[in-house]
Design brief:
It is built from 12 helices and 16 strands. By secondary structure, the chain is of the alpha+beta class.
Length: 306
């Protein structure tokens, strides 16, 4: 029977039998839903620690990121490095640069220098020849007015062997480069196509040398080395950092000790695990007759002072 014929579709069953049948169907459906829910919850509890984990499986939530940040160690301070490469006879400096690991702002800072840079009428190369890397570290500390904590010098063969352990790296060139040069016992060739490509350790060394000595394009040299650093410090290399440090000690002459390395493990962890969030800066020296201008010295000091 239909009630309120002109006000909608409201029906009343014609018999108690039909009403009883409908109630039975509803009860069966309700029992099925209860049983299904219980089984689902049991399986869910077995596989996942929480419902949130189930719905967020495979995704990184804001809460998860916050927890990960809390679990990472806190680091602070700034450390300055002097890195350079010579020929195998240690008669020529191919390139030389200042690098800062800024743990306060999670950043790399870099400044390439000319090996012909004059300090008190002596070139960087002459200072190096008279006292080695330690003497050069001391002289540059005095000249710029900020502390250079560590130095590391590589000859060409050792740097290429060391860099090659990390495999190829991606670099970008805004031009095709075809160049051959160098002295009789120190020849090198660089063939780079325009655009993005993979280069090996030898090509990295030669390209840094080309930008420094031939083109004197210190900005491009900075960018190339910053790119290498960013790709070097990654999660995979952090897991193997002990053996890589032993290789570093074997490949270079440096005042970085095992204790220094152990004390820097937390910083290494941050820079490797968060490498895509690391900021990079570079400052370019301006020269006049192989002497840095006063403004350049001021700018470099501003970047690297602690």
């Amino acid at each position: 029977m239909k009630l309120f014929k002109n006000r909608g579709d409201i029906y009343i069953p014609k018999s108690d039998y039909k009403k009883s049948k409908e109630e039975m169907i509803l009860k069966i459906l309700l029992v099925f839903i209860v049983i299904f829910t219980v089984v689902f919850l049991i399986l869910l509890n077995h596989k996942y620690n929480s419902t949130a984990q189930f719905f967020g499986d495979g995704e990184v939530t804001t809460t998860q990121i916050a927890v990960e940040e809390e679990e990472l160690p806190k680091i602070s301070g700034k450390t300055n490095f002097l890195i350079f490469e010579t020929d195998d006879s240690q008669e020529i400096i191919h390139y030389i640069m200042l690098i800062q690991a800024d743990r306060d702002t999670k950043a790399y800072k870099i400044c390439s220098l000319s090996p012909e840079t004059k300090i008190d009428n002596k070139s960087i190369l002459e200072i190096y020849k008279s006292g080695g890397g330690a003497s050069l570290q001391t002289k540059l500390t005095e000249y710029f007015g900020f502390e250079i904590n560590y130095y590391a010098e590589f000859d060409n063969s050792s740097f290429v062997d060391f860099a090659s352990k990390f495999g190829s790296m991606v670099c970008f060139s805004d031009e095709d480069i075809r160049f051959s040069g160098g002295g009789e016992d120190d020849k090198y060739t660089i063939h780079i196509n325009e655009g993005e490509q993979n280069i090996n350790g030898k090509e990295l060394s030669n390209l840094l040398r080309y930008y420094c000595l031939e083109k004197k394009q210190y900005s491009l040299e900075n960018e190339l080395f910053l790119s290498a650093l960013t790709q070097l410090f990654n999660e995979k290399n952090y897991e193997d950092c002990d053996s890589l440090f032993r290789l570093f000690i074997k490949s270079s002459t440096s005042n970085i000790t095992v204790r220094d390395f152990e004390n820097s493990k937390n910083a290494l962890m941050i820079f490797c695990l968060k490498n895509t969030d690391i900021t990079v800066y570079n400052t370019v020296g301006e020269y006049k007759s192989n002497v840095l201008t006063q403004q350049s010295v001021k700018n470099i000091k501003g970047y690297f002072s602690k």
